[in-house]
Amino acid sequence: MTIITLLQSSPVLFICLTIGFGLLVGSFLNVVIYRLPVMMEREWQEQCAELNDQQAPKCDPFTLSAPRSRCPQCNHAITAAENIPIISYVFLKGKCRECKANISLRYPLIEALTGLLSGIVAWQFGFDWTCLGALLLTWSLIALTFIDVDHQLLPDSITLPLMWLGIFFNLFSSYTDLHSSIVGAIAGYLSLWLVFHGFKLATGKEGMGYGDFKLLAALGAWLGWVLLPLIILLSSLVGAIIGISLIIFRKHQRDIPIPFGPYLATAGWLALIWGVEINTLYLGWMTS
Q1: Nearest Cα to 223, choosing from 266, 170, 186?
Q2: Residue 98 near residue 75 (C-beta atoms within 8 A)
Q3: Could you read off the pLDDT of 239-268 as tens digits, one per residue?
Q4: To 10 degrees, the CA torsion angle through 99, 100, 106, 107?
């Protein structure tokens, strides 16, 4: 029996392996979430220096693979044994092996979240190439969520390839037909673009960033225009509840912007997994 035949015949094994691989991907996403914004900032500094005919400051190479991850307190290089998802955090008791500085709990939580969501995707799609696409979308949404939380930024280097990848998968009608995919990408971008400019005309302020347009365009490319109203409704509802709660309970100042990307990403993932069922339930409730 080949590995492919075994995975096809044993859904439980496939889900377990996907969860394990998702934990590893979650460890890599921690790197992306931290390093990609820094890489972008350095690129912007180089471009600004070039426009001003200045010499850009020289920095050591900084990519997703180099230099090795280190403790920010004592500069201890993280070994492979100290970088096992979740297990290393538990073994080290959440502290650096050298200086005993606390390691952020967010690292294992992102690893666990990635593993969990990957397992749900495997359960929903089974051993099929559509599962691969759904996993790529899920991992991208996790990275975008936490980058937006930290920096209020949705990098083009993730959102734009994500949009084209969605269209590519739907060349084969993986999640929707190609026509719905292309219309979804266009409608996703233009809908928030119109909201952005309408809000700016009415208030003189910018209510969201251009990255939000591109993220919704990517979700439209993956899931089609039919699910866009559901994504917008869910993201707006969750965003409103969390935003009001932050203002009331944490005294979050109203003039401090709250990133919208995490709500779009959450709604998009829910639509990926249960969008058809939610739409059917909602339409049935509306017509009853």
Answers
A1: 170
A2: no
A3: 778 777 766 766 655 556 678 999 999 999
A4: 60
Separation of alpha carbons 75 and 155, rounded Å: 28
Task: Report the helix count and the strand count for the chain, using DSSP H and E.
Answer: 10, 0
Q: Which of 269, 261, 263 is nearest to 139 (CA)?
A: 269
Q: Exposed, middle or buried: residue 129 (CB in 10 Å: 0-12, 13-18, 19+)?
A: exposed
Is pTM beyond 0.90? Reply is: yes
Task: Tell the residue number behind the tokens 């099929």, with chain if given.
Answer: 128
Q: Which amino acid is at 57?
A: P
Distances (CA, A) of 78 to 92, 109, 144, 196: 12, 18, 25, 43
**Which tokens sit at 195?**
């909201």
- The whole-angstrom separation of Cα 68 and Cα 267 is 34
The tokens describing 125, both together, are 């799609």
Q: Which residues pair with 70 in a beta bridge?
A: 77
